[in-house]
Design brief:
2 copies of one chain form a homodimer. The first copy, chain A, has 245 residues and is α+β, with helices and mostly antiparallel strands. The first copy, chain A, has helices spanning 9-16, 23-32, 89-93, 113-122, 124-150, 153-170, 185-192, 196-208, 224-231, and strands at 37-39, 44-46, 54-60, 63-68, 74-80, 99-102, 106-112, 178-180, 212-215, 218-221. The first copy, chain A, has 9 helices and 10 strands. The structure holds a DNA duplex (30 and 30 nucleotides).
DNA sequence: CGAAGTCTTGAAGAGCTTCAATACGCGTGG
DNA sequence: CCACGCGTATTGAAGCTCTTCAAGACTTCG
């Protein structure tokens, strides 16, 4: 990636939120990335069973990790936003155990695994930060699992929207509790583990109670405090604080 | 930990399953661990909000990660067996976002975070392996989330037992498809996200169909193939193959 | 303007939860 | 050795949440 390019800004913002990064670290990362590409909605970034030789960082758009069972049932196990490293996992795990799919058009940059290996050999602090990013993802899926296990449909949906608000805000992707979320309810259903019908009814419920609106792909959280309470939301798992790591 | 001590064997076995480790790496790890301790059942290894200065490796017993919501609902988000590093996470994340609880008496050893930091500074390959261990945990919770989202109660329970069989076997903790699992059904309920009553009924179902037995804390998988099919189980997510990492 | 996808609503039914009661297993004390 | 008590397991029955099936409305786009 060429120098002076600031398309990586959302990613560095993500990192800086958790710890200070040095000029050397920033330069090493910038050098490691290839040029940006755009991929269309519904395209796959990686498929289960693949052995990618590069990892992918998202500069814009929304993508998801998804598992499809033999019986055709599908569960989305992560949502990725601008600035997220979407399959840093594959650098360490080697084989993909799920699919990664673009939900909207996405701008991505790839980084060869050899470059990541070089980073782990030379820049231990940066390595720990990359490790951190993967563990934050793990924390998010843990919290989703809690929701799928013990939260009701309404709580689960409230939690998802409040999490999105928090993550979008941290990434500078909101204004006035409004953010772009241009996906169909079918996608929501696969995140929440609900039927399409009940997803719709649950959404209508949140809307009718004035907690949020969602029209033409734009979500507005109308009453953040009530939504958070409804969701039993606790932001600890997002690890949004800066510390020496 | 004193030299020549082979209580770390189950842990090294876990690592060796995924990649070759050098003598230097093995020595560095062995030195890093403190002396073993035993902790009683139901005791907490770490609590949500804690900022541990050491990470914990389990040499024997069964422990779990668990999240309790404000309304008292509880979900278990991981099970750890002998040889598992149970909160390597805290080294990178710093603050605990869930509890870690011993389900049985456990033998544990601790490793100070400064030692782990030293490892990341000097031994990049070993660092990648430790990173790997945390990502395998993340893969397991992803698969649990899939179960909580789209698998039925029977499929989910079948999946749990088949996963345990596979993990226990990989850790050398089985003989003839039998392994020790001395926890009450109440614990199972918190793993599966079911009520106590339905957990019991689901278990009775699996038993009556001759898929498994579970008496006095000992599980025997009577028909592994049918159990695996029932569970829609696919072991990719356990990453049990050895590769250059 | 028509067609395809998405959203919304109604109604019946399944899976799971809740409430309630009984049975079992095990350690303790009489 | 039996009686008691407590935690765990099991079973019955009613009820609620969510699913499934089905139909109609809205939206977007050629």
């Amino acid at each position: 990636m060429t120098n002076g390019d600031d398309r990586l800004a959302p990613f560095f913002r993500r990192l800086e939120l958790r710890d200070k990064i040095s000029e050397e670290e920033r330069a090493a990362l910038t050098r490691a990335f290839e040029t940006a590409e755009t991929i269309p909605p519904q395209s796959y970034v990686a498929r289960e069973g693949d052995r990618p030789s590069k990892s992918v960082l998202m500069l814009s758009g929304i993508s998801c990790r998804t598992r499809t069972l033999r019986n055709g049932e599908r569960q989305i196990v992560a949502l990725h936003l601008a600035g997220d490293f979407i399959d840093l996992h594959s650098f360490v795990l080697k084989e993909m155990d799920h699919d990664v799919e673009a939900l909207t058009a996405c701008t991505i940059v790839r980084v060869p695994h050899e470059e990541l290996e070089r980073i782990t050999e030379r820049l231990p602090h940066l390595t720990r930060l990359l490790w951190l990013l993967t563990l934050i993802d793990a924390g998010i899926i843990r919290e989703w699992a809690v929701g799928l296990g013990v939260r009701s449909a309404v709580q689960r949906m409230a939690h998802l929207f409040y999490e999105l608000l928090t993550r979008m805000r941290a990434g500078g992707l909101t204004s006035d509790n409004t953010f772009s979320f241009p996906v169909p309810q079918t996608t929501l259903k696969d995140i929440l583990g609900l039927s399409a019908v009940h997803t719709n009814r649950t959404l209508m419920d949140l809307r009718s109670r004035g907690l949020l609106s969602w029209e033409k792909g734009v979500v507005t959280i109308l009453d953040p405090d009530r939504l958070r309470d409804e969701a039993l939301f606790d932001e600890t798992y997002l690890h949004l604080h800066r510390e020496r790591r």
